[in-house]
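Input record, target 12 of the design panel.
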């Protein structure tokens, strides 16, 4: 947040804390809380730990994936992350293989936060360190991945369109660029459409929803990637429950084409807000 706007940010932050029930939750722009998406990076720098488990039938095999990630802020606008995926690959013919994928490192910078327009943006740089994972599932070569992620809430729409105000979109665009080796460049592009029921009741109209529904965010995520002109990915309808200390999300995974898989998979994710759980240690920036 820009220094000149810190007092305004503090007021908005406190209001969002009371009304949303998520004091330091993930990414906040004005009165808008953007939850952590399950299938791609979100636009907020934060202190948190996330775990996402997924299962899906890919062409010729069933693949399961447990993704773990820890993010830590060094300043209010700059943070680092470290993570890894444990993979199970169960082919239709032959024996199953499993093991850790390569270590993933990242740096994120909060490019902007525009409270009145409920807009937020982030620049990131990730790296997959080749040779750090299991030889059975991990690539021997390293990649670097520059990224831009954003979020935009619809709270600035005119009052005549007030029932659209709880809508928000988020997205991320990144490229996986091999440092060496024969691997091709990969374009990752993803976006989500979400409708925040707490926002509806707090800022538009109270419709009598109680817990757990009052803290739910119906969402559809679209994680896609393009390699050599060929696009694969999934459509992920689901719901995220946003709490004070954590969030829980559950989504289906529907392949967009035959090359992306067959049948319907799922993602189950838990995100811990260390800002609230450990506000005086792991949950605070190292330098204010």
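The sequence produced for target 12 reads:
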């Amino acid at each position: 947040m820009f220094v000149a706007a810190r007092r305004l940010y503090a007021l908005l932050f406190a209001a969002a804390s009371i009304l949303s029930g998520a004091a330091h939750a993930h990414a906040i722009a004005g009165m808008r809380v953007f939850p952590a998406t399950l299938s791609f990076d979100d636009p907020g720098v934060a202190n948190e730990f996330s775990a996402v488990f997924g299962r899906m039938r890919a062409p010729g095999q069933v693949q399961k994936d447990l993704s773990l990630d820890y993010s830590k802020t060094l300043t209010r606008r700059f943070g680092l992350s470290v993570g890894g995926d444990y993979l199970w690959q169960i082919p239709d013919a032959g024996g199953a293989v499993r093991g850790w994928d390569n270590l993933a490192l990242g740096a994120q910078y909060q490019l902007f936060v525009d409270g009145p327009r409920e807009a937020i943006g982030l620049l990131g740089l990730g790296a997959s360190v080749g040779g750090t994972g299991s030889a059975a599932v991990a690539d021997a070569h390293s990649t670097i991945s520059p990224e831009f992620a954003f979020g935009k809430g619809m709270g600035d729409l005119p009052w005549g369109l007030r029932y659209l105000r709880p809508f928000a979109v988020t997205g991320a665009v990144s490229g996986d660029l091999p440092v060496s080796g024969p691997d091709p460049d990969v374009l990752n592009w993803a976006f989500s459409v979400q409708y925040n029921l707490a926002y509806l009741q707090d800022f538009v109209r109270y419709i009598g929803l109680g817990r757990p529904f009052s803290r739910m965010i119906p969402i559809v995520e679209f994680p896609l990637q393009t390699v050599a002109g060929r696009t694969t990915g999934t459509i992920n309808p689901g719901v995220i429950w946003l709490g004070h200390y954590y969030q829980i999300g559950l989504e289906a995974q529907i392949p967009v084409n035959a090359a992306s898989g067959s049948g319907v998979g799922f993602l189950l994710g838990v995100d811990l807000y260390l800002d609230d759980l450990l506000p005086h240690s792991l949950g605070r920036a190292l330098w204010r």
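The helical segments are 6-20, 197-204, 274-277.
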